[in-house]
Amino acid sequence: MPEDFEKAPANATPSHADVLAAAARIAPHAHVTPVMRSRALDAIAGCELHFKCENLQRVGAFKFRGACNAIFSLSDAEVARGIVTQSSGNHGAAVALAARLRGTTATVVAPRSTPKVKLAAIAGYGARIVPCEHRQASRDEVTAQVLAETGGVLVHPFNDPRVIAGQGTAALELLASAPGLDALVTPVSGGGLLSGTCLAAHGIDPAIELFGAEPEGARDAHDSLHSGTRITGRVADTVCDGLRSELGTLTYPILREHLREILLVDDAAVVAALRLIWERMKLVVEPSAAIALAVVLAHRERFAGRRVGLVLSGGNIDLDGLPALFATGRSE
Amino acid sequence: MPEDFEKAPANATPSHADVLAAAARIAPHAHVTPVMRSRALDAIAGCELHFKCENLQRVGAFKFRGACNAIFSLSDAEVARGIVTQSSGNHGAAVALAARLRGTTATVVAPRSTPKVKLAAIAGYGARIVPCEHRQASRDEVTAQVLAETGGVLVHPFNDPRVIAGQGTAALELLASAPGLDALVTPVSGGGLLSGTCLAAHGIDPAIELFGAEPEGARDAHDSLHSGTRITGRVADTVCDGLRSELGTLTYPILREHLREILLVDDAAVVAALRLIWERMKLVVEPSAAIALAVVLAHRERFAGRRVGLVLSGGNIDLDGLPALFATGRSE
């Protein structure tokens, strides 16, 4: 990703106060999602689990929080230029809906390989879709073209302080609903949700242990934090289609400062956790969300007997792909 | 079903007051389940939908309400004799859990054809399972044997006033959460949930229109009400595995008195509605629950512009059976 693309939005590190401001800003538009419990899963995990149900958020994912905060932070003059983003998934739908609510247009640069259901969701919220190739260079090139042609405002999926602050509002609500949690577990991809969670949680209680959940097949964030260098350029291989991005220049330092650890699991563990959530909690979650439970079950010594919050980040999944997904779980 | 089996429990018709008493009795044990909305489904249906999420009830189905009310209505002396029922599904699990909570034992007579996951759920709550053959005569014979041997107390799946009153508590909660609904739609099988809904709703507002939702392949309740005779002895053929029973002697007259209509849909419509609920609401429901939305979509002229409550009756489904279920939806 070229530097000018990454730095296009304001690049100041957001604070806990920014998360509080985001909560007030998005309140008229976003759902306060429920926090759910499950006796059965508590028994299986050997700890007390509090699930923040962002699969029940608008557009079916936490992404609406960040997109909404970013777009409603803009001036009327900026908004009038239209919103531009690149996304092959939930962020594109989130930007499309938030732009519509703000009364402006959105253009989403999306790889031709994007699943039809996700393109349909983006188009369903009224956004224009501009196709690109799958490789990052093509995405950035086409995004830069669109920005130049339209004069629009970029809302990056995660490397944007307003997006990070918006994503943090999920953890704010979780801790308001379940005060005194010992630990939070959140999926990590580009790090928008996880860094927002860091700012939200440690502003309330610096003693809360914060964990990222990452697939073995996309372990760049884990390896970045262990090596002390932000790793880029790897090819991700995981069923967690929402967790294939790399950390950004804004999110990486926040994670370095706040995070206890990034915990890894393989895809079979993710699928097993997904099945547990569907079967025991009756909630449709996507693999990228189920990974939070997967790491708690795979690293149970870290969580035994403790009160743990998990962010179920989204529920957008192609039901026709389930047989293949479940086969992944069995073959490994 | 032999008369002595049907009449084993008290056979007085329950009242609205019995539903209120049931609500108080089960309050320490049952969940007050959420009522959920969906902008997307309102737009698709052309009316205002309020979904009572009994898939989030304990044991994953409304059945816990009736079983709990019946078992907590018993005297200590009766309870000490143990509970007996026959079930191939959610009622068996509900009786098993309610019996355990009351500190007694349960015996569930279940056909050998019962899916392993459902047997595992029943056994998981500590009940003894006694196998029988699939045909009703075998179920009744084995149940009678178990009753004779154990001296236990029968809790019938639906033809029991305490069970009916317990099931009615779901509609009480729905109407407390969404006052002034114009209509309620509830699945119908043996009629326990639907007749309890009748007593609950018309005790609050006699003008509420009450509808049953029934599969074309198990339309005995529809045909019974149209012919004026309770039909028995048919073989059901539907993907709604919870809707294959026939009306009971207690439930049939309640439906005759209160019901506006029983609406029919085919299995393809049920599967399409199930997919909508999974995809748009992110809720795992079983086919027998999705049928409520299916009838609203299939009979939309009856509901256009109105405020409609639907009971999502349960969420217990074998995920490995999904490809076959979805194929049903496509082939018809």
TrEMBL record, chains A, B:
Family matches, as InterPro entries: Ser/Thr_deHydtase_PyrdxlP-BS, TrpB-like_PALP, TrpB-like_PALP_sf
Top-level lineage group: Bacteria
Required cofactor names: Ca(2+); Mg(2+); pyridoxal 5'-phosphate; Mn(2+)
A Pfam family hit: PALP
UniProt keyword terms in alphabetical order: Magnesium, Pyridoxal phosphate
Residues of the signal peptide: none
Tryptophan synthase beta chain-like PALP domain span: 27-314
Protein name: Pyridoxal-phosphate dependent enzyme
Species per Swiss-Prot/TrEMBL record: Marilutibacter chinensis
Native organism taxonomy: Bacteria, Pseudomonadati, Pseudomonadota, Gammaproteobacteria, Lysobacterales
